[in-house]
Amino acid sequence: MYKQTATGFLLLLLSWQLQAQSQLKELLELSTASYPELQAKRWETEAAERQVQYERSDFLPSLDGSYQMVYSTNNNITGMFFPGQILPISGPPVPENTMDFTYGSAASLLMNWSPFTFGKRESKIQSAKFSQELARHQESLAILEHQVRFTEAYLNYWAATSMAQAAEKNKDRYESNLALSKTLVDNGLRPGVDSAQFRSLFVRSKIDYLQAQKTADNMMARVRELLGEDQMAIGLDANLERQLSVQVEESGGNHPLLQRSRTQMLLAVAKKTELNRSLMPDLNLWGTAFARGSAIQFEGGFNRPMDGLSFSRYNYGVGFQVAVPILQFARTSKLVQRQNSLISAAEAYEMQVDRALEKDRTVAKVTLEKALEAAQMAPEYAQAAEYSYQALQARYDAGLINLNELVQGQADLARAEAESIKVMTEMWKALLYYAAVSGDMDFFLAQLQE
């Protein structure tokens, strides 16, 4: 029983450690899956995929079936036909005008097929494919931007919470010194003004702590909004407290922003091809089967109106049609010129995005390197301030220094703790910035879990 209890405790402890180690990663994955904006981008990508499937289905023939039944006068032709898929067939005129009503019916099948489009269908499919690729890159870019926003918000929350914890420690130190000063004043070892000053500083530290808590709560609300889920508990990732040892490497040109620009240019070229091929002829093959029924006799008149509900004549036909847009060349040429301008604009935008990303990568690399150097010195700074404060407190207890020196030492310690938190936060933000301009959040997450 003791072995089972120990094993269960170890498994629970290991589960808790794994959860703490992957807190930010789990929240980031949940945010990516749950945030409404990203869900909308996924639906847009799926819609673009369906458009490609639709353009490909244009190769299939169309087959339209129609049936109609009418009740009309028998003047002039074999009854009245409504417009639609029924091909009208005229009949003999009646010898005299009459307002007698009779039934008529008709049914037809009309098939239309364009097996050869002279490149029109292929150009539309190609444009749909580039539109699908563009939607996919826009989704990737939206995911990257959201992950960066969420991670930055979480780092701000972590920093604000750490600041609140540091403010609480500073408040506790003032409270301890206040109790100590009261004892020293009661024993006549210190003037009464020390207790009054410590009380004032203690109250001020409580106010600072409340302000830090308010800031942390505001940061929590921002993280919760970007998370897209209201039930998930948000904790602090313990990995954010450790130092980093990052090997900065040159990133390639796979940033979603650059890929989107390239795809926009390729889509503009595909649209130009589609315009050029729109001037090609249209070749349609068609076939029809038609049946009609009418109660009207050949010489006019009718016997029974209901005879028109049964079919009496059947017709079949096949054929083809070629249509050439003769007068469309001039107008289409203007659209082609317009598309050439759009292609040039897309190429210029792509060049600008490439240059901007190159500049951002250079800045991000230098920023990360300097942030790593500063983070290496932060623990030493805080430890030195802690040691100095402990020494000053001992000297104050022994009556060797006055109140101002101890207060200054405590203020220096609080400043060192706050600066250490700030430096660590800037280190992680610099790593996030480098991952963002490289277009690879996996680089950030890999460093987080090492």
Automatic annotation (TrEMBL):
Instruction: Provide the leader sequence positions.
Output: 1-20
What Pfam families is this protein classified in? Answer: OEP
Q: Which UniProt keywords apply?
A: Cell outer membrane, Coiled coil, Membrane, Signal, Transmembrane, Transmembrane beta strand, Transport
Q: Where in the cell is it found?
A: Cell outer membrane
InterPro entries in UniProt: OMP_efflux (IPR003423), TolC-like (IPR051906)
Coiled-coil region(s): 127-184
Entry similarity comment: Belongs to the outer membrane factor (OMF) (TC 1.B.17) family.
Q: What is this protein called?
A: TolC family protein
- Organism, by scientific name, is Negadavirga shengliensis
